[in-house]
Design a protein that fits this description.
The complex is a heterodimer of chains A (552) and B (157). Chain A has 552 residues and is mostly helical. Chain A is 70% helix and 0% strand. Chain A has a single domain, classed as Cytochrome c oxidase-like, subunit I domain (Cytochrome C Oxidase, Chain A, Up-down Bundle). Chain A has 16 helices and no strands. In chain A, helix 7 runs parallel beside helix 10. In chain A, 57% of the residues are buried. In chain B, strand 6 and strand 7 form a beta hairpin. In chain B, the strands form 3 sheets. In chain B, strands 1, 2, 3, 5 and 8 form a 5-stranded mixed beta sheet that branches. In chain B, strands 4-10-9 form a 3-stranded mixed beta sheet, with no helix packed on it. Chain B folds into 2 domains: 35 residues; 109 residues, Cupredoxins -  blue copper proteins (Immunoglobulin-like). The longest helix of chain B has 26 residues. Classes of the chains: A mainly alpha (552), B alpha+beta (157). Chains A and B meet through helix 7, helix 8, helix 9, helix 10 and helix 12 of A and helix 1, strand 7 and strand 9 of B.
Chain lengths: 552, 157
């Protein structure tokens, strides 16, 4: 009785404030990034021309930074803080919360400065900011603020976790908190690369303190960060899939230990793999490229485990309700429940999204798709659909749980409509991008008919489909913003923060899973193995450094 | 740690497939020479056009139906020397490229010729043109405000 009452307690007010601030900031970034995205789609298909002063690549920079870096990071940190609060003691320790706010302020300040620099056309370098294109030093400083802010938040979460461990000696850490700590560890280790690039290469060079920059080193450091970044987006969605979805459908978590193992494998195999983004580049030998390709593909293993575990949860639940036949359990899933439906559509789309990823990373096949719209289509399925729809699905219960409100059937319906519009828009846009990418149409390129070349003429119908899909997606963004507003006006009440229980059959996870020293050492060994020799090779590059160029 | 029997089958099958897949990638890379473009030769950016091979841009005939094409990718175009590339049908062309300024891309749509053109290093890609036509060469890496106009052609007849 007592526990029931406790679990129905409203979320700690101070914690909700921290979480909600992150979520609202994320959705503002989504809205602005969405406007940029809409305009890009219309320019690329030659439907409109931008009014004087705004450049296509400026919009592209804003879209990439605000969507891929800001929307995701703010949402993730807000969501993970809520899970830490919920599962590690019911509220955040004052120090953890303070670190969270400090992080928020730093990230927010960095975002504002970066956005202003992009709008002033001082940083039209896209979100990959490849040297030797040289943005304003303010842009690089802004990035430092964003990254350092995330480190403060990570420190807050780790502080909360360590305190809990001290108070609960010998107990297994709740799954949500365990997974959150892995996600933030992955992030901190990965951002070290980009931090070194920005602080030791880009900033001194953009301030004129050093003349030349080692281009290959900067690219290698960027992609050391750039690939784990995608797992930083994905793992919070996996937390929802592993922990929250089983509870939402009324089932149990299939296996606690295997869920933890899959997260450990993601931690190990998402960092030493950046070269698969650099397969077409000179200066790195085929052997080291291939080694990192192999390491890249090892994430297939935890992905297979995840797929099995999720569908096992679904099937066990369906059968417990009397489902018959091989796929009869499918009918028993709560299709009308937006908390399930949006993430489920994300999972479904992760199947083609993952397959596209395998193609991208395949040593030779990469030559067919590298820097074409195929890649753009790919990550609009992964991060912009699988991850984003899952984040939307989370928002539908997170906001009411934070504000002491209750989801209504009407809200579920609005959510389902929003999800369908998103999926339809994305199917058109990403589908067209995949196909026209296979024909060779380059990504990150404004409209061009290439002097009337017939190859380029054949791409035009796909651009129209992309523009239509992009417009539908923009409508879906507006619907989501409206839904977010509606979530704050729901009737007062109680909405559950869904934390799944482990199946009775599952056993306790081995103690080894929480020996962080051990796992981080393996991560470091793998990174050193994959990077030491090629980086020495790059450092010995005799061509000298490059000066900066402003080509926009 | 207990693993469900069906999950074991699923994982053994999946990991087995992965092994076969990686083996194929590895064999095609190292035994059949299908390596991604990974040339290693450095070149000085400052006096690029005085440095071989970029002091003589354009096509060099190496053998019957085998050519070397020396070019640079710059903001915003491809420097192919005095004239655009023209080769007979069935020619194998070794493209050698670098950049005097920012990072560019080199792509011939409809073929597997695709590489990054990075200043300070020479990159190579080889392609055999079995079909006649005017092939588009474009830049597929954002390089600045005129990125979308960067193009040249190679004519195969």
């Amino acid at each position: 009785m007592n526990t029931v009452q406790q679990s129905e307690q409203a979320f700690d007010k101070k914690d909700s404030k921290l979480v909600i601030s992150h979520i609202i900031f994320a959705f503002v970034a989504l809205l602005i990034g969405g406007i940029a995205g809409l305009l890009q789609g219309l320019v690329r298909s030659d439907m409109i021309q931008l009014p004087a002063g705004i450049g296509y690549y400026q919009l592209l920079t804003a879209h990439g930074v605000l969507m891929a870096l800001i929307f995701t990071t703010f949402f993730i940190i807000g969501f993970l803080f809520s899970g830490m609060s919920k599962t590690l003691g019911g509220k955040l320790l004052p120090r953890a919360r303070t670190l969270g706010w400090l992080g928020f302020i730093h990230m927010g300040f960095g975002t504002l400065v970066a956005t202003v620099m992009i709008l002033l056309n001082k940083a039209t370098v896209l979100y990959t900011f490849y040297a030797p294109m040289q943005a304003s030093p303010f842009f690089y400083f802004a990035l430092v603020f964003v990254v350092v802010g995330t480190w403060m938040s990570a420190a807050g979460m780790i502080y909360q976790y360590r305190y809990w461990k001290k108070e609960h000696k010998g107990e297994t850490t709740p799954l949500t908190a365990y997974m959150s700590i892995i996600t933030m560890s992955l992030w901190v280790i990965a951002t070290l690369g980009v931090a070194v690039e920005v602080i030791f290469q880009l900033i001194p060079w953009s301030l004129g303190w050093v003349e030349g920059i080692n281009i290959m080193l900067s690219r290698t450091l960027f992609w050391y960060f750039g690939h784990p970044l995608v797992y930083f987006w994905l793992l919070p969605a996996y937390i929802c899939w592993y922990v929250m979805i089983p509870k939402i459908i009324g089932g149990k978590i299939f296996s606690d230990a295997l869920a933890r193992l899959s997260f450990i494998l993601f931690l190990l195999f998402s960092i030493p793999v950046g070269f698969h983004h650099q397969l077409m580049e000179p200066g790195i030998s085929p052997f080291w490229k291939f080694l990192q390709v192999v390491l890249t593909f090892l994430v297939v293993i935890p992905s297979l485990m995840t797929a099995f575990s999720l569908f096992a949860s679904f099937e066990i639940y369906g059968r417990s309700k009397g489902a018959k036949g091989l796929f009869g359990w499918f009918k028993y899933l709560p299709w009308k429940d937006i908390r399930f439906f949006a993430p489920f559509m994300g999972m479904l789309i992760f199947i083609p999204a993952g397959a596209g990823g395998l193609i991208n990373a395949s040593n030779q096949m990469n030559a067919v798709v590298h820097n074409t719209l195929f890649v753009t289509g790919h990550f609009h399925l992964t991060v912009a659909t699988s991850v984003t729809l899952t984040f939307f699905g989370i928002t539908y219960w997170l906001i009411p749980a934070m504000t002491g409100r209750k989801l209504t059937p009407k809200m579920h319906k609005l959510g389902r409509m929003q999800t369908w519009v998103w999926v339809a828009g994305m199917a058109m846009m990403s589908g067209a991008m995949h196909i026209v990418g296979l024909f060779g149409s380059p990504r990150r390129t404004a409209y061009s008919d290439y002097n009337g070349h017939p190859d380029a003429a054949a791409w035009e119908p796909y651009y129209i489909i992309m523009a239509v899909g992009g417009t539908v997606l923009f409508i879906a963004v507006l619907m989501m913003i409206y839904n977010l507003y509606k979530l704050f006006t729901l009737p007062k009440g109680y909405e559950e923060y869904p934390i799944g229980e482990v199946s009775d059959l599952a056993e306790k996870p081995p103690k080894l899973f929480e020996r962080w020293g051990f796992w981080v050492s393996i991560v470091v060994i793998l990174i050193l193995m994959a990077y030491t020799i090629p980086v020495i090779d790059i450092l010995n590059n005799p061509s000298g450094g490059s000066k900066g160029f402003v080509t926009w | 740690m207990h693993i469900h029997k069906l999950e074991k089958i699923w994982l053994v099958f999946g990991i087995g497939m992965l092994g076969v897949f990686l083996l194929i990638l590895g064999i095609s890379t190292f035994s059949y020479g299908l390596e991604p473009p990974s040339a290693h030769q450095a070149v000085n950016m400052e006096n690029l056009y005085d440095t071989p091979p970029f002091d003589e841009l354009g096509l060099n005939k190496l053998n019957d139906k085998e050519y070397e094409a020396i070019l640079t990718a710059y903001v915003f175009g491809f420097n192919t020397g005095d004239e655009e590339f023209t080769v007979p049908v069935g020619s194998t062309v070794h493209f050698k490229a670098t950049s005097p300024d920012v990072v560019h891309g080199f792509e011939i749509p409809g073929t597997n010729a695709n590489m990054m053109v990075v200043p300070g290093i020479i990159n190579h890609v080889t392609y055999t043109f079995d079909e006649p036509g005017e092939y588009l060469i474009l830049c597929n890496e954002y390089c600045g405000v005129g990125h979308e106009i960067m193009q040249t052609t190679i004519t195969v007849k």
